[in-house]
């Protein structure tokens, strides 16, 4: 009995396996090393995925120091200017620099649905809803315009507006007020209609209360019936921008001078609003 019990005990002892050692994970790294590892990931992944892993990771992703280390090598051309007007490091909540790296607002068209793709989404329609339509056609007179979607004005009046919040797009106040940026706007149209009409583009730069600080509004342009198909572009560059600009209001307005129950209006092919940094 004793021998049997002893053997059973010995067998039990031999069958015990040592506890496996825990493999070191990212959360066991010092905060400086974790920040270094995360800095190599794409900004979109950091904000949309890594930030949700745990509180420690969220604090690192929200930290000013992480994005301060990312900016010089993600935006080497812009860094000499950006470094002179960085936002404060003690801003609460997600870091503003992270939104800049994710959204990449410099040189990107900030307008949504600029050619009518998706209809009037993101545009405020200030005329009747049936005063416009969309179409696809081959406009070879405009570079890279093959079979693109465009807005087509019709039925008396066309009036659309889009207001861009520059801070939501990824810019910050110190950069906007630095005097180192320009705002470039343009609008392409194709005058291939069968009626007389008037075209006008109006762009306003607005402050935080949406009061007008600057504007571009050329004289209304008359488009006469019977002209051949001609592509035209209205454009302007806002430089030496006043301090306080926070919004850009972009409006297209077309008046048909006669009524026809057909779609003979102006084809509005593309619009752009983009911000550029004035490099030294």
UniProtKB/TrEMBL annotation:
Pfam families tied to this protein: F-box-like, FBA
InterPro entries cross-referenced by the UniProt entry: F-box-assoc_dom, F-box-like_dom_sf, F-box_dom, F-box_only, Galactose-bd-like_sf
Limits of the F-box domain: 23-70
Domain FBA positions: 100-277
MF GO annotations: ubiquitin protein ligase activity
A GO CC term assigned to this protein in UniProt: cytoplasm
Gene Ontology biological process terms in this record: ERAD pathway; glycoprotein catabolic process; SCF-dependent proteasomal ubiquitin-dependent protein catabolic process
Domain of life: Eukaryota
PANTHER family to which the protein is assigned, alphabetical: F-BOX ONLY PROTEIN 27, F-BOX ONLY PROTEIN 6-LIKE PROTEIN
Protein name: F-box only protein 27-like
């Amino acid at each position: 009995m004793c021998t049997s019990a002893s053997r059973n005990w010995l067998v039990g002892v031999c069958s015990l396996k040592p506890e496996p050692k825990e493999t070191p994970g990212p959360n066991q790294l010092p905060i400086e090393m974790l920040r270094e590892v995360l800095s190599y990931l794409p900004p979109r992944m950091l904000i949309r995925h890594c930030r949700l892993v745990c509180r420690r990771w969220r604090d690192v992703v929200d930290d000013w120091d992480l994005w301060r280390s990312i900016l010089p090598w993600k935006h080497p051309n812009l860094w000499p200017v950006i470094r002179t007007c960085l936002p404060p490091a003690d801003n609460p909540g997600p870091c503003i620099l992270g939104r800049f790296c994710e959204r990449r607002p410099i040189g990107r068209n900030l307008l949504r649905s600029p050619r009518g793709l998706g209809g009037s989404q993101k545009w405020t329609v200030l005329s009747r809803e049936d005063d416009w339509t969309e179409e696809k056609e081959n406009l070879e007179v405009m570079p890279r315009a093959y079979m693109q979607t465009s807005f087509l004005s019709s039925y008396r009046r066309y009036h659309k507006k889009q207001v861009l919040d520059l801070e939501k797009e990824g810019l910050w106040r110190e950069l906007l007020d630095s005097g180192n940026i320009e705002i470039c706007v343009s609008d392409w149209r194709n005058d291939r209609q069968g009626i007389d009409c008037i075209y006008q583009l109006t762009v306003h730069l607005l402050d935080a209360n949406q009061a007008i600080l600057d504007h571009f509004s050329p004289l209304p342009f008359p488009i006469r019936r019977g002209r051949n198909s001609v592509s035209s572009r209205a454009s302007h560059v806002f430089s030496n921008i006043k301090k306080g600009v926070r919004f850009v209001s972009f409006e297209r307005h077309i008046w048909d001078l006669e009524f026809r129950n057909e779609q003979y209006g102006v084809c509005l092919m593309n619009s752009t609003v983009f911000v550029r940094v004035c490099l030294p």
